[in-house]
Amino acid sequence: xxxxxxxxxxxxxxxxxxxxxxxxxxxxxxxxxxxxxxxxxxxxxxxxxxxxxxxxxxxxxxxxxxxxxxxxxxxxxxxxxxxxxxxxxxxxxxxxxxxxxxxxxxxxxxxxxxxxxxxxxxxxxxxxxxxxxxxxxxxxxxxxxxxxxxxxxxxxxxxxxxxxxxxxxxxxxxxxxxxxxxxxxxxxxxxxxxxxxxxxxxxxxxxxxxxxxxxxxxxxxxxxxxxxxxxxxxxxxxxxxxxxxxxxxxxxxxxxxxxxxxxxxxxxxxxxxxxxxxxxxxxxxxxxxxxxxxxxxxxxxxxxxxxxxxxxxxxxxxxxxxxxxxxxxxxxxxxxxxxxxxxxxxxxxxxxxxxxxxxxxxxxxxxxxxx
Length: 371
Ligand code: PEP
Ligand code: MN
Description:
Layout: H1 5-8, E1 35-37, E2 40-42, E3 48-52, H2 59-71, E4 76-78, H3 96-109, E5 113-116, H4 123-129, E6 132-135, H5 143-150, E7 156-159, H6 166-177, E8 184-188, H7 204-213, E9 218-220, H8 222-226, H9 229-242, E10 246-252, E11 266-267, H10 271-284, H11 298-336, H12 347-352
Parallel strand pairs: 3-4, 3-10, 4-5, 5-6, 6-7, 7-8, 8-9, 9-10, 10-11
Antiparallel strand pairs: 1-2
Bound molecules: phosphoenolpyruvate and manganese (II) ion.
């Protein structure tokens, strides 16, 4: 059977049994795969944010980042202990001590941890410390590694190769699935194109198409896709709008001094704004964030719930203002065509309950402008 889509025509039009990837094909589980890991569901209703440093540099750096991202609503902690670096002279990660830090901080906060495995021989070691095994872009077609990760008894986060086609990514996932492990998360992390202004080009279309072709959850990595911290928020919102399962984002307390990928790392201080933007996008789709794991420590959870409340207030304020303005526009149009407007008297009622940027004193408005 030819594997090239061009020779074969559009593989979506093939009968499921003709697709070269049967186990991960959408038809194998039309309802979609939901993966439960440490109290977090990936591929369910909630949008999952995995966040943390590119590389674990020290316990203090990891602690600070992890607490901050958890308090803003990230539910999975990311961090590299074994780093694949283009230059052999670059910082290649702390190795085992880094894994131990990830395990300890993840446990303390009650967050599942995702970290990369580079060597098939390390799959067991990484699985002993982390909840999700990441296979990086450079290793997407390292078949021995795919098989070792597939056998390690943990969910696998499989990132798309730098120049890999959608079909090649799905076939790589099939290698993991063949080990009896269907807990696979696919990640679109940008591909190489002629463009040099960004590190890679985010192929959001691929993320959407993957969602049609496979039952596996798909997430987006806006950090590696752009290489620029300023783009990570907007691209995270785009991913949320496109309906993917979540995003994985690099965050650092001091990006300028990061040992790895500082230019694309969102500062800890900027992360709440990013989460606010994603929350507004999700609200437009009636979709919540994945709730933080029940085991998240109560103080961090309280912080996150309080931030969430403030965010919801800001959203309500915006919506109430928008509603009042829409009512007035309807009145104006009705009077243009000679009908009486009925919204104007109620518009102040919508405005009245909101002051400044807070809704905390908002009493339920009983009169509806369209009643
Ligand atoms: C990473 O997530 O830190 C990483 C190295 O990603 P990628 O494999 O997508 O380059
Ligand atoms: Mn990185």
